[in-house]
Amino acid sequence: MKKTVLITAAVLFSAFTAVAQPAMPEISPEEMQEKLISAVKAEFDNIDTDGDGIISHDEFIEYQIAEIRKKGEENFRNIDADGSNDITEEEYFTALKSVMDQLAEKMSRLAAD
Ligand SMILES: [Ca+2]
Ligand SMILES: [Ca+2]
């Protein structure tokens, strides 16, 4: 289990340095790796709700559901532009267009590099 956590941290670290390091030159790769490992450990402890040092099937599924719910709530708030607690067709299409525009911008920036 510890090995899995460390591998996950290493993968996250590689992805993070590839994407974010140029913007954060004041943090050394070693410091960033330590921060990521401690973040992964904290996440593990957060998922292991009974604190027995093992993430059970139920603990994992509950965590995943909570994360999806949190993301869903966040997406809903972003799409519901007027805060009416309902999404109109116009709000939905506006949000979708905004996502598509951002994607197109990212892809053209990647193509330019
Ligand atoms: Ca547990
Ligand atoms: Ca609305």
Describe, in plain words, how this protein is organized in 3D.
With about 110 residues, the protein is mainly α. It has a domain at about 1-45. About 75% of the residues lie in helices and about 0% in strands. Helix 1 crosses helix 2. The longest helix is centred in the last third of the chain and has 24 residues, at about 90-110. The model has no long low-confidence stretch (mean pLDDT about 85). One calcium ion binds near residues 82 and 84.
Structure at a glance:
This protein is an all-alpha fold. It has helices at residues 2-20, 29-47, 57-79, 89-112.
Counting DSSP E segments of at least 2 residues, the number of strands comes to 0
Shape: flat
The separation of the N and C termini measures: 39 Å
Low-pLDDT parts are none
How much of the residues is beta strand, in percent? under 5%
User: What's the tally of helices?
Assistant: 4
Small molecules bound: calcium ion
How would you classify the helix and strand content by structural class?
A: mainly alpha
Gyration radius, rounded: 19 Å
Q: What is the residue-mean pLDDT, rounded to a whole number?
A: 87
What is the string of helix and strand elements?
A: HHHH
The major beta sheet can be summarized as:
none
State the helicity in percent bands. Answer: over 70%
Layout of helices and strands:
Layout: H1 2-20, H2 29-47, H3 57-79, H4 89-112
Helix pairs in contact: 1-2
Bound molecules: calcium ion (2 copies).
One calcium ion (CA) is lined by residues 48, 50, 52, 54-56, 59.
